[in-house]
Amino acid sequence: MSQFPDALWLNFSPSLQVFDRPLLKVLSRQLTVGQWEYSQTQDEPMSIEIALELLHDYLTQGDRPIHLLGHGTGGLLGLLYARRHPETVRSLTLLSVGVDPAVDWQSYYYNQLQWLPYSRPAILTRTVHEIFGCQSPTIVQQIRRRFDRALSQSLSLHTLYHQGQLFPGGVPVPLLVCGSQNDVIIEPSLLQGWQPWFKDGDRLWQSPEGGYFFHYFYPQQVGEQITQFWDEGVATKLKRSRLTLLNRISPNTRRLIS
């Protein structure tokens, strides 16, 4: 299928897409990048399983494995999918996804809403300030409205009354984890926690700044890390596959194809 993309960005927050666009523009200079979007109404049940099934229905239409990428919940879904269907995934890139993959800005928001003596709008404004730092009142209000819509339109493991959890673990495909050293949501310890789960070829890269949406502020630097990983990571995987093949055949045949 010639129209099937080389890489697929997973998005669960239509109102927050604006923060992904600069990076997608950078990546699209290297490969064909598609976007897979999932949104829901307040009347629909929160179900990761439904999203996984719909994603699998789409990916099985392709004729080759694909690079999966996602930020936050999008990365979480990519992680769960790659564990379940590694044969359709060429590589996985996670942005702002810690070793506890359920932690995201919504879990941070609901935790504050539960324990701090402030109203919902005040907590949401506080969350925007902590994620984006000092911004003008106009920009803060614009971002807060986007966050407010995301709370009602986005798939999430979290509500005010329930905080979802998932066990940490690796993935059987090449993995790149990216984050920011000054992120108040996915702190550096959650990024470093991936190290015991890494296999040969997996990588961790941290931006010095940028916070939870570091890919919005530094799209060029993040894009360079991802495309380098695609080039070198996939080459390493192909080399390992060739070595595995050589080890399975006879010495005489091995000399003929070396």
Describe this structure in words.
The chain is 46% helix and 13% strand. The chain has ten helices and six strands. The protein has a six-stranded parallel sheet, with helices on both faces. Strand 1 (7-11), helix 1 and strand 2 form a beta-alpha-beta unit. The longest helix has 30 residues, at 219-248. The protein is globular and about 50 Å long. Mean pLDDT is 85; it is low at 238-258.
Strand order of the largest sheet: 2-1-3-4-5-6
- The rounded distance between the terminal residues' Cα atoms is 33 Å
Structural class: alpha/beta
In DSSP terms (H or I, runs of 4 or more residues), the helix count works out at 10
Q: Per DSSP, what share of the residues sits in E-state strands of 2 or more residues?
A: 5-15%
Describe the largest sheet. Answer: 6 strands, parallel
Write down how many β-strands occur, each being a DSSP E stretch of 2 or more residues.
6
Average of the residue pLDDT scores: 85
Poorly predicted ranges: 238-258
Order of secondary-structure elements: EHEHEHEHHHEHEHHH
Q: Roughly how many Å is the radius of gyration? A: 20 Å
Helix content: 40-55%
**Shape designation:** globular
